[in-house]
Write a structure and sequence with these properties.
By secondary structure, the chain is of the alpha/beta class. Helix content is 38%, strand content 17%.
Length: 301
Amino acid sequence: MKILVTDGMDKTALAQLKADGHEVVEQFYEPDALGEALQGFDAVVVRSKTKVRAAHIDEAKKGSLKLIIRGGVGVDNIDVKYAEECGMTVKNTPKASSQSVAELAMAHMFACSRYVSIAGHTMREGKWEKKSYGKGVELFGKTLGIIGFGRIGQSLGRMAKAMGMDVVAFDIFHIPGIEEEMGMRYVEMDELLAVSDFISLHTPSIDGKPLINEENIAKMKDGVVFVNTSRGNNVDEAALLAALNSGKIRGAGLDVFVEEPSANAELYSHPNVSCTPHIGAATMEAQKRIGAEIVEIIRNF
């Protein structure tokens, strides 16, 4: 096949595809040029930056595109239903990056509880603010609420249990036996918001509507730490910022934003925000696993 890779891919996996006899082109296309470009390929591999929308699919139908692969967990940057209605197959790599994203969520929990980000920043400004940042909290003994208990949520839950945290989870799907296996319990959303000292969000984007909004923030404990490594539009950024300013939310760990790159400087510059530029799956190990999974998908296809 002729395969377009728009957002980069592990070099070993690229070499394997070429060794399998495929022609692989690595090139990013701006949205207004993507649809026409897709006409010349049988398959396209994207990550987060490239969005494959209905208009692109309409253009691609004029050519031979039959396989769209998202190197990552979510597929909300692809109009999946429309692509499938047009006879195209859409795949993703849900297993490959779970551990990496979960570890980043845990890192943000540590950063928010112990002021790691802002304390380090002030030191680089020549300050020694030991008293200002000497009121951290421990994770041990605290309750972690995980919203969305798929592979990433489960990985985070196992790490949290090892840290001595209690874990509760909300998910529309309940996995049989996992409560006994992990020593956690499923709860309804309102209970999770009320009892959790830390909350980590791991759901796909749901109709572009924020799950964490003013109403749900009001139901949270005072002084909660909130982490989002899922999708930026799952959070009402204005409501989050207001809660940070009031102290309702002690700290927020954010890897994703409504707009990327984020233009919300007031949010990402907030002293109680630990922020990263959408790097949840950006580990060497995860990229190798993602690449290997993409190769397997293409071979099976």
